[in-house]
């Protein structure tokens, strides 16, 4: 694809020769036919030595490079769009694999693609342009809307709803029972989980993530939410539109996460909390109470060389005593002065 | 179902009109035909405005509500039981799906239900009333006892034993090899994992949890244990009866967890520890040594606005110096006084 | 197997009667025909009372035991090798299960074993001696090299490469899309993930772990790496040879982990970091910056009884104030002295 054609479709400003590019690549390993980008100015020095055929550059960057280039206000976003042009998602191949099992009352669009050994249970609806790859279980009365792509080995429990253009990666479980138990003199009694999972449009769910169905009302993932791998979303959680959550995050029951939030990897959000819109939670942080104002929130215990760190732990245990000692000293000084 | 019929089966005290209810719902969204409950008195004000057909109330609650109601000492438990009456688990449909594969020496009860594309390997025993849903792998010589329900996409390695009335959710792996390796001059040598996983009765295991087989002896999950999603149970762990563990918890090898314990989400229990009966571990807590007394144990680093939190981390690194400074001050004051 | 035959194959020094052993077992539960070992001297007292037929002992141990024994410099490693002799991995049974689906252009060695309901997509190559168990999805153009064992329910996305003698446990997902998104005025734009996952020889990957494909370049797991269960490896991570990682660890994008490292359970390594060779990271530790020197690194917030721990959290929030108070005291004393 010629740079001029890219600029025609995506905007930006072309400078230098109008070369052809066939793939994207990082600055330091790009080669013939590849287009690289400079997003983080830390890597500016790589531009002058890159072997890329062309580079996407930010405005007003001071760089020794006169080769083919596209100037963009947001090179990383521009690169994302170029890569999407050069790497379109595979076309849907409508049809049902001969080994798949479709229950008699399931409705599968003739424009959908169903993979090997996939089972679509009674009453399920699979819309046009959907791909359900191999080894998936689509439970009774599940609805999967158009152009959604479900990768191999995904399980969707009965009654759940998946929006349009959603991507669900392998190993994901949607609609399993929430962890609802009541204590009866030491023994646990299971509470039937009768809600559903409702997933909006343009959501992506990473490999082996789990989203539990609601206890009574539904668990809701709003439009544009992006979930990385191995995320646990408990029953009755609501994740607001366009929130992005990194891997290994756990969100406990009935937590309400706002819109346009980000949550770093390994963070835990306790149950029955509300997180405002536009909140950023740092990786590894445990959120123990509601957050009402936008901003970045962090709780990271510092790591250190082992022996040093062990001392920190001891000192934390002695903090109360240290504060008491300071109070005694303060009192003594006050007495002396009076 | 009439309230009087519910009271006949479950006890409690009926007051107001003996109406019919068909479903449970939360106080704030319940409507015609639905029964709600008041468990946490924080929500008492919702009772007077609820549109529920009936409410389960605690004893001695001061509430402006004269509608149909059931008085119970433990409304949450009562609600759990009402919901179970109104939402019985689906009946078993005995039979083997035509796409399933049953090895010639496997013994599947004619009263069991086997789903699409499920494989039952040689020597496995599936008892009466069991459901093994679609896409499951039941390894050689596995025993699944009566009335257990195994959801789609579950893997059970050879030789493991599952008790009665167990529920295993999708994506669970039971009996995979424990992480047993011995170091040989920098390289790791695998130690064969020849134990099994033994799961008691009335256990529930959440989606994508993993329970490793023992290295030599067995990994044991006792009766009534409830595990949420994405829990990792390493080899030779023993989890005592009626313990409940929330999502994303990791339990390292050979840890022994007591009976009637609870473990909050995202906690980690290190290996070769013993946790006494009736211990509660808070979410996000790392347990680094044995706990010998019942009680609640916590280790939560507080989160804060990012800039504030970063300062806390710096201050923790300076704790030793701060303590030294206090000691100097104490010494100076002592000198002055003498 | 006679002890003399074991010593012939594995070295070590035989003492006492040359008995037959058929299985390994721990000292405290071993019985007739079983061989136990003493690795941690904490358990020395168990040797004199063991019912084991034979014991593997370290050199120079002071123990009251005159029974059949093998003396080894490293009893744990010796035991691992004895167990491997007594518990050889099951032989490959070459052949394709009649329910499996092999795409027309896939190349499956006649010496490979393919399980029930497994699909091998176009262009995939399965070498001799490989076992792909039931319910696996082997994507297009995947290469699996000789003697690798893939357990049931594994998903390998298109184009990934698996080395020789690798073991992949159930529920593992290899090659799912990395979490690559660019922000466009609040909405997230997906970045195509066009790299692969390349896995070396002698790697083991635990149940339900996930390894994402690279964004542009590849994600690489080098030879001899051992991964426990539920580990998340993000796009473009490189894990150096012979590194061992315990369960529930998350490694964020583009992190480079050195060779011969160990990472404890539940640790999180942030993205774009470098960890030197021979680094040990403690369980539950959050690594927020690169580590350049070998050694052990820890960041563990201490747990305590709940009420005590809550006070620690409060005190951490007041650390700045405490430091200020100490500074005031120091200044007052200095003034007095002058």
Automatic annotation (TrEMBL), chains A, B, C:
**CDD domains linked:** LbH_LpxD
Could you tell me one molecular function GO term of this UniProt entry? UDP-3-O-[(3R)-3-hydroxyacyl]-glucosamine N-acyltransferase activity
Sequence ranges assigned to domain UDP-3-O-[3-hydroxymyristoyl] glucosamine N-acyltransferase non-repeat region in this UniProt record: 18-85
User: Which pathway?
Assistant: Bacterial outer membrane biogenesis; LPS lipid A biosynthesis
- What are the TM regions of this chain, as residue ranges? none
What InterPro entries does the record tag this protein with? Answer: Hexapep, LpxD, Trimer_LpxA-like_sf, UDP_GlcNAc_AcTrfase_non-rep
Key word Lipid metabolism present: yes
Q: What is the E.C. number? A: 2.3.1.191
Q: Which reaction does it catalyse?
A: a UDP-3-O-[(3R)-3-hydroxyacyl]-alpha-D-glucosamine + a (3R)-hydroxyacyl-[ACP] = a UDP-2-N,3-O-bis[(3R)-3-hydroxyacyl]-alpha-D-glucosamine + holo-[ACP] + H(+)
Pfam families, per database record: Hexapep (PF00132), Hexapep_2 (PF14602), LpxD (PF04613)
Could you name the active-site residues? 235
Per its UniProt record, what SUPFAM superfamilies does this chain match? Trimeric LpxA-like enzymes
Keywords in UniProt for this one? Acyltransferase, Lipid A biosynthesis, Lipid biosynthesis, Lipid metabolism, Repeat, Transferase
User: Which family, according to UniProt?
Assistant: Belongs to the transferase hexapeptide repeat family. LpxD subfamily.
What function is annotated for this protein?
Catalyzes the N-acylation of UDP-3-O-acylglucosamine using 3-hydroxyacyl-ACP as the acyl donor. Is involved in the biosynthesis of lipid A, a phosphorylated glycolipid that anchors the lipopolysaccharide to the outer membrane of the cell.
- Whom does it interact with, and what assembly results? Homotrimer.
Name the PANTHER family on file. Answer: UDP-3-O-ACYLGLUCOSAMINE N-ACYLTRANSFERASE, UDP-3-O-ACYLGLUCOSAMINE N-ACYLTRANSFERASE 1, MITOCHONDRIAL-RELATED
Q: What is this protein called?
A: UDP-3-O-acylglucosamine N-acyltransferase
Task: Report the source organism.
Answer: Leeia speluncae
Q: In the record, what lineage is assigned to the organism producing the protein?
A: Bacteria, Pseudomonadati, Pseudomonadota, Betaproteobacteria, Neisseriales
